[in-house]
Automatic annotation (TrEMBL):
One GO MF term attached to the UniProt entry: pimelyl-[acyl-carrier protein] methyl ester esterase activity
UniProt binding sites for substrate: 21, 111-112, 172-176, 264
Similarity annotation: Belongs to the AB hydrolase superfamily. Carboxylesterase BioH family.
EC category: hydrolase
Pfam families: Abhydrolase_1
Protein name (database record): Pimeloyl-[acyl-carrier protein] methyl ester esterase
Positions annotated as active site in the UniProt record: 111, 236, 264
EC number(s) on file: 3.1.1.85
Length: 287
C-alpha cells in the first residue's frame, strides 16, 4: 500500500482538504487551523507530493483510489440495511434521521484537487456527502463553449519542466497571484509553504499536467445529487470566473460563490471570506 501523509485537526463535522498541482499539505496550514476551530479537518498530500509516496503512473483513478483508501468513512449507523445519521431538527432540539452515504464526509478540492474530489464523488459516491470546489474547473482546457486555460499554456509548462523544474514551478506560483494588489506578500507565502518539502518528481508533475489538460468531469458534475459549493476568485487567471455560470447550467443546484478581489488562492488572500462561505455550507449539511 502506498504511504499517504495526512494531518488532522479539530473536532466536529469532517472535511478533507485536497491541494492542487505541485503543492502539499503545508499550503493549508494556517487556513486549516482556523477551519478546525469548528470542524474536523484532514489535510492530505497527493501521491508523490509532500510526504506521500509516489505512484506510477500518476493518474486520476490511482490518486482517487489512494485517497479513499487512507480516509476512513465517517461514523454512521445502519437501520434496515441503509446508512443513516442523526441530524438536529430546527427549533425543537430533537433529532431526525436522514439517509446518507456511509462516508458522511465533505471533500474540498482546490485547483487540481477539485478534479480529484469530483472523481471520488463519481467513483466512490458512498464516501462523499458534499463537495466544495475551490478555484476548480471540471474541464480546465478552454474551448469556444467552455472557459478555461489555453492548452498552449499547459503544453508550455510541460515542455519547460524537463528543462528547469524549479523555474517552472516559480512561474506557476506567480500566475496564481497575478494581478492581485498584495501579490508580492502572497507569493512569498506561497514560496515558503511550497518549498518546505522537495518538489514532486518530473513524472508526477507531468502526470498532473496531463490530468489538467485531458480530464473532463463535466458529465460527473451534471449527474451529482449531493450538495456542491463552488468558490471562485474574480481575478483568477487560471480558472476564469465565467466558468461558474457554466457549472450552474450543468448543475442548477450548485451553490456559486465569487470573491471578487481574489485570484487562484482565495484561502490565502481572502481567508476570512473563504472560511465564512465554507462554514455556512458545512453548517447547512447534516453530516
Amino acid at each position: 500500500m502506498t504511504k499517504i501523509h495526512l494531518e488532522t485537526f479539530g473536532k466536529g463535522k469532517p472535511i478533507v482538504l485536497v491541494h492542487g498541482w505541485a503543492m502539499h499539505t503545508g499550503i493549508w496550514r494556517e487556513f486549516a487551523k482556523q477551519l478546525a476551530q469548528n470542524y474536523r479537518v484532514t489535510c492530505i498530500d497527493l501521491p508523490g507530493h509532500g510526504r506521500s509516496e509516489k505512484i506510477d503512473p500518476f493518474t486520476l483513478e490511482r490518486i482517487s483510489d489512494e485517497l479513499v483508501n487512507i480516509i476512513p468513512p465517517s461514523p454512521s449507523f445502519s437501520k434496515g440495511g441503509n446508512e443513516y445519521a442523526s441530524c438536529p431538527r430546527e427549533g425543537n432540539g430533537q433529532t431526525s434521521l436522514f439517509k446518507k452515504g456511509a462516508g458522511g464526509i465533505c471533500w474540498l478540492g482546490w485547483s487540481l484537487g477539485a478534479t480529484v474530489v469530483l472523481d471520488i464523488a463519481d467513483r466512490y459516491p458512498e464516501r462523499v456527502s458534499s463537495l466544495v470546489l475551490l478555484a476548480g474547473n471540471p474541464s480546465y482546457t478552454q474551448t469556444e463553449q467552455w472557459p478555461g486555460m489555453d492548452t498552449g499554456l499547459l503544453d508550455d509548462f510541460a515542455g519547460h519542466l524537463n528543462k528547469n523544474c524549479q523555474a517552472t514551478l516559480l512561474r506557476f506560483l506567480s500566475l496564481q497571484v497575478n494581478g492581485l494588489p498584495d501579490r508580492k506578500i502572497l507569493l512569498k507565502t506561497l514560496k515558503e509553504s511550497v518549498f518546505e518539502c522537495d518538489a514532486p518528481d518530473k513524472n508526477t508533475l507531468q502526470g498532473g499536467l496531463k490530468i489538467l489538460k485531458e480530464a473532463d468531469l463535466r458529465p460527473v458534475l451534471s449527474g451529482l445529487t449531493i450538495p456542491v459549493s463552488a468558490i471562485l476568485g474574480g481575478l483568477d487567471t487560471l480558472v476564469p470566473v465565467a466558468v461558474g455560470q457554466k457549472m450552474q447550467q450543468l448543475l442548477p443546484s450548485l451553490e456559486l460563490n465569487v470573491i471578487d478581489r481574489a485570484g487562484h488562492v482565495p484561502f490565502l488572500s481572502h481567508s476570512r471570506e473563504t472560511l465564512a462561505i465554507i462554514s455556512r455550507f458545512m453548517d447547512e449539511q447534516c453530516i
